[in-house]
Design a protein that fits this description.
343 residues; alpha/beta; 10 helices; 18 strands; Quinone Oxidoreductase, Chain A, domain 1; single chain; seven-stranded mixed β-sheet; 24% helix; globular; 26% strand
C-alpha cells in the first residue's frame, strides 16, 4: 500500500510517499480502507521532534481518518467488512481501568495515540483496535467523518465537558481560524454561549464569522485581552478554549472573568510559560486541559453532525505527495479550517 512515511525527525521534505506492507491484524484489530486523512498541527510537532515521548521512527503520521472496514480480527464482534467507520485518536486501551470504565479512555495508561505511538492514517489502509471505531452513518461523508474525532470531538470535550459551558456564558476561542478553532466556535454556540473568537489573520475573519462567532478579535502585536474584555462587557470571559497555547497564554489568561475556566487544548510551539499563580486564585480561575476524544464524545459528535447541528469545515484537499507542502502551509498559518490528504 502507499503511505506517507516519516523515517526520522526533520524538515517538511523528510516525509516521503512509499510502498509499505499492508498491516497484519491482531485478534481485536480492524483494517480500514482509508478514504481521507485529516492534517493536524500535532503531526508537525511529531515530525520536527518537539514531541518525543513514546515516538519511534520510521512512523506513518496522522490520527484522523475514516473509511470502510476491509478486514477484522478473529475477536472483533461489532464490525464487519464493508462497514463505514470513523476513528478516535487512540488505540490499544485496556478497557478495564477506571478511566476506560468511565468514558475517559484517552487517560488509560495502556492506550497508544494513533500516528504518535503507532502508525496512523497517512496511508491507504490503517489498522486500529475495534474499540477505537464507531459506525459512520450514510448522511455523513467520509471527508467529514475523517475530522470528527480530533477537530470536533476535542472541542466538545473542552467546551462542553471540561469547561462546563452554560447557556449565556461568554467563551473565548483562540486560534479561531484553524482546524480546531472553527469547530470550537460552533461548539460554544451549540452550548448557548456568546463567542468571542481570536485570530492573528484578517484573512480568516469572514470564515470565523460565518461559523457563528459573535465577535472576532484580530490580535495586534500579540495583544488582544483588552478588546476581548470590552466585547465581554468589561469583566472578561467565563471559558477559554485555548487551541494555541504558549504564544497566547498570557493574554488569554488576562481576558478571564472571576470564576472562569481556562481549558488548554492545543500547543503550537512547545515553549514554556511563566505566570504569577495569584492571577488564578485571586479570581478563582480554574486551569484545565483535555486530550483527545472518548468513544462517547465521538458518538455525540457524529449525531450532532448527522442532525446538521454542527458543520465540519473542510477547506482544501491534497494528495499524499502534497504532504510536505501542506505541513509548510499549516505552519505558516496559510490554511483555514481542516484540510485533508486523500489516498
Amino acid at each position: 500500500m502507499r503511505a506517507v512515511v516519516t523515517p526520522h525527525p526533520g524538515d517538511y521534505d523528510v516525509m516521503r510517499v512509499a510502498e509499505v506492507p499492508v498491516p497484519t491484524l491482531g485478534p481485536r484489530e480492524v483494517l480500514v480502507h482509508n478514504a481521507a486523512s485529516g492534517v493536524c498541527y500535532h503531526d508537525h510537532l511529531i515530525r520536527v521532534g518537539v514531541m518525543r515521548r513514546g515516538i519511534t521512527f520510521p512512523l506513518i503520521l496522522g490520527h484522523e481518518g475514516a473509511g470502510t472496514v476491509e478486514a477484522v480480527g478473529e475477536a472483533v464482534r461489532s464490525l464487519n467488512p464493508g462497514d463505514r467507520v470513523a476513528c478516535t485518536q487512540w488505540t490499544e486501551n485496556c478497557g478495564l481501568c477506571r478511566f476506560c470504565r468511565t468514558n475517559r479512555e484517552p487517560l488509560c495508561a495502556e492506550r497508544k495515540y494513533f500516528g504518535h505511538d503507532r502508525d496512523g492514517t497517512y496511508a491507504e489502509f490503517f489498522k486500529i483496535q475495534e474499540d477505537s471505531l464507531l459506525p459512520l452513518p450514510p448522511e455523513v461523508s467520509f471527508e467529514d467523518g475523517a475530522i470528527l474525532s480530533c477537530a470536533i470531538g476535542t472541542t466538545l470535550a473542552a467546551i462542553r465537558d471540561v469547561g462546563g459551558t452554560q447557556a449565556g456564558e461568554r467563551v473565548l476561542v483562540t486560534g479561531a481560524g484553524g482546524g480546531l478553532g472553527v469547530h470550537a466556535v460552533q461548539m460554544a454556540k451549540a452550548c448557548g454561549a456568546t463567542v468571542i473568537a481570536q485570530t492573528t489573520s484578517r484573512d480568516k475573519v469572514e470564515l470565523i464569522r460565518s461559523v457563528g462567532a459573535d465577535t472576532v478579535v484580530v490580535a495586534r502585536n500579540g495583544q488582544f485581552a483588552d478588546e476581548v474584555k470590552r466585547a465581554a462587557g468589561g469583566e472578561g470571559v467565563d471559558v477559554v478554549c485555548d487551541n494555541v497555547g504558549a504564544p497566547v497564554f498570557d493574554e488569554a489568561l488576562r481576558a478571564t472573568a472571576r470564576g472562569a475556566r481556562y481549558v488548554l487544548v492545543g500547543e503550537l510551539t512547545g515553549d514554556p510559560v511563566t505566570f504569577n499563580t495569584a492571577r488564578l486564585f485571586l479570581k478563582g480561575v480554574s486551569l484545565l486541559s483535555t486530550t483527545s476524544t472518548s468513544r462517547t464524545q465521538l458518538a455525540d459528535v457524529i449525531e450532532l453532525v448527522r442532525a446538521g447541528r454542527l458543520r465540519p469545515i473542510v477547506t482544501e484537499r491534497f494528495t499524499f505527495a502534497d504532504a510536505p507542502r501542506v505541513h509548510r502551509l499549516m505552519v505558516e498559518r496559510k490554511l483555514s479550517g481542516r484540510v485533508l490528504l486523500i489516498p
